Amino acid sequence: MATVWTVLAAETVVALAMASAAAIWANKFQRKTVDQVVPDVVPVAGQTV
């Protein structure tokens, strides 16, 4: 049973590391997209109004 718990613990650590890395990447990507999209959308909104 000890090996099963060790494997489960290792998988949990890996899953947490992947999740945090994905969250960090998504946060950077989201900020970058927002910074790029907002200047594009604002002039268009100003023209349509």
Describe the model.
The radius of gyration is 21 Å and the shape is rod-shaped. The model has no long low-confidence stretch (mean pLDDT 77). It has a domain at 24-49. The chain has one helix at residues 2-48. The protein is an all-alpha fold and 49 residues long. It is 96% helix and 0% strand. It is built from one helix and no strands. Keywords: Signal. Residues 1-17 form the signal peptide.
Indicate the topology.
Blueprint: H1 2-48
Could you give a quick summary of the protein structure above?
By secondary structure, this protein is mostly helical.
Outline, from the CA principal axes?
Answer: rod-shaped
| Overall strand count | 0
SS-derived structural category: mainly alpha
The averaged pLDDT comes out at 77
Given as residue ranges, the uncertain stretches (5+ residues, pLDDT < 50) are none
Order of helices and strands: H
Q: Count every helix, treating DSSP H or I runs of 4 or more residues as helices.
A: 1
Largest sheet, in brief, is:
none
Report, as a whole number of angstroms, the end-to-end distance.
67 Å
Describe the structure using short key phrases.
1 helix; 49 residues; rod-shaped; 0% strand; signal; mainly alpha
